[in-house]
């Protein structure tokens, strides 16, 4: 039958291995994460929690190793503790890399949002320019139409001015003919002998 201390050591070792695998899986999830910043932050928080659990279990294992009666078992457990600490140190480096990549991702997402806003503003400016161009083209077409109407009006006015001159000339000639006729009639009646 195993001593309670040996059982505790085995449980600590199993939990350390379990937390180690969970941390590796979470770090891989962080590497594969292409989603929003909130998902990356959540994964980062989970990694920190698992690291805290892992540190506690390693400390418990170290404490159990120090409490071992046999020197050989004590040395073996302390060697395991050192190995776990070294692995955790490498994982801590990975965690800091994950945090750095998280910060970089956040910066890139911010830049992406700013670029998206710039593109949207550019699209709005282009739309405004297109609308202004359409308005100018419509005004130009109206101006051409009005110009044609004005030219037609000018031609009509010139024609009416000529017609008025012709009418005045005809009226003058008709009046002159009438007066000549009246004079002729008056002359023949008053002075028949002339």
TrEMBL record:
InterPro entries xref list: Sec20 (IPR005606), Sec20_C (IPR056173)
MF-aspect GO terms: SNAP receptor activity
Coiled coil stretches, renumbered: 44-87
All copies of domain Sec20 C-terminal, residue ranges: 100-190
GO cellular component: endoplasmic reticulum membrane; SNARE complex
Places the protein is found: Endoplasmic reticulum membrane
Membrane-related topology note: Single-pass type IV membrane protein
Transmembrane segments: 169-186
Single GO biological process annotation from the record: retrograde vesicle-mediated transport, Golgi to endoplasmic reticulum
Keywords: Coiled coil, Endoplasmic reticulum, ER-Golgi transport, Membrane, Transmembrane, Transmembrane helix, Transport
First-listed, main subcellular location of the protein, grouped into a coarse class: endoplasmic reticulum
Family from the record: Belongs to the SEC20 family.
Name by which UniProt lists this protein: BCL2 interacting protein 1
């Amino acid at each position: 039958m195993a001593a309670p201390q040996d059982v505790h050591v085995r449980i600590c070792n199993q939990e350390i291995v379990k937390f180690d695998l969970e941390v590796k899986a979470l770090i891989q999830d962080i590497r594969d994460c292409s989603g929003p910043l909130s998902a990356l932050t959540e994964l980062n928080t989970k990694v920190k929690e698992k690291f805290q659990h892992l540190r506690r279990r390693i400390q418990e294992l170290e404490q159990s190793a120090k409490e071992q009666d046999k020197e050989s078992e004590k040395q073996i457990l302390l060697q395991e503790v050192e190995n776990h600490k070294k692995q955790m140190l490498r994982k801590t480096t990975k965690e800091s890399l994950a945090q750095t990549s998280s910060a970089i991702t956040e910066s890139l997402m911010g830049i992406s949002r700013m670029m998206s806003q710039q593109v949207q503003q550019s699209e709005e400016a282009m739309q405004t320019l297109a609308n202004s161009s359409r308005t100018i083209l419509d005004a130009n077409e109206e101006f051409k139409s009005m110009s044609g109407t004005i030219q037609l009006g000018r031609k009509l006015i010139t024609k009416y001015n000529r017609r008025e001159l012709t009418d005045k000339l005809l009226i003058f000639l008709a009046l002159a003919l009438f007066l000549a006729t009246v004079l002729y009639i008056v002359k023949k009646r008053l002075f028949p002998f002339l």
